[in-house]
Specification:
The chain has 165 residues and is α+β, with helices and mostly antiparallel strands. The chain is 52% helix and 11% strand. Strands 2-1-3-4 form a four-stranded mixed sheet, with helices on one face. Bound molecules: FE2/S2 (inorganic) cluster. FE2/S2 (inorganic) cluster binds next to helix 5.
């Protein structure tokens, strides 16, 4: 049932785009917006619907760095490690986040799929360095303590939401 639902969403997206192989990139973008990454079976399914080889879909998905082939957390934490942020010790933020969320350089998503941490180069807000962006929210002049408090707030909010559901 869950699985069928999963494919219904993709079918909707493909139909909306006229099942047009020339629209592969926007289709993949919409699929990623929906699932937060590109699941393998969905890419195969998309190839079948668009009547193109799966290798073409995989080729596009791996070429553009904003496509994710592995599941990501509900909250994507982007820690800026561009020059201005690096000078203002962005690595202390990375350490604090990894410690709080039990992540490491080889593991950037939490087991409960709540958080994924990524480092990025300049977010274009150098005046606020060091900068962290969590989903759509920008946090400037961050410290290890402040970023830990933000994460704790999100964890609390999520726990409360789960308790209410
Ligand atoms: S270097 Fe971090 S926002 Fe520019």
């Amino acid at each position: 049932m869950e699985k069928q639902k999963k494919f219904e969403k993709v079918m909707e997206i493909i139909e909306r785009n006229g099942a047009n192989a020339a629209r592969l990139i926007p289709i993949l973008q919409e699929i990623q917006d929906e699932y937060r990454y590109l699941p393998e079976e969905i890419m195969d399914f998309t190839a079948t619907c668009l009547k193109i080889p799966p290798a073409r879909v995989y080729g596009v998905a791996t070429f553009y760095s904003h496509f994710a082939l592995a599941p990501k957390g509900k909250y994507i934490i982007k820690v800026c490690d561009g020059t201005a942020c690096h000078v203002k010790r962005s690595e202390t933020l990375i350490d604090a986040i990894q410690k709080k969320l039990k992540l490491s350089d080889g593991k950037n998503t939490t087991d409960d799929m709540l958080f994924t941490m990524e480092t990025v180069s300049c977010l274009g807000a150098c005046g606020l360095a060091p900068v962290v962006v969590i989903n759509e929210d920008i946090y400037g002049q961050m410290t290890a303590d402040k970023v830990t408090a933000v994460l704790e707030g999100i964890i609390k909010k999520e726990a409360a939401n789960n308790a209410n559901n």
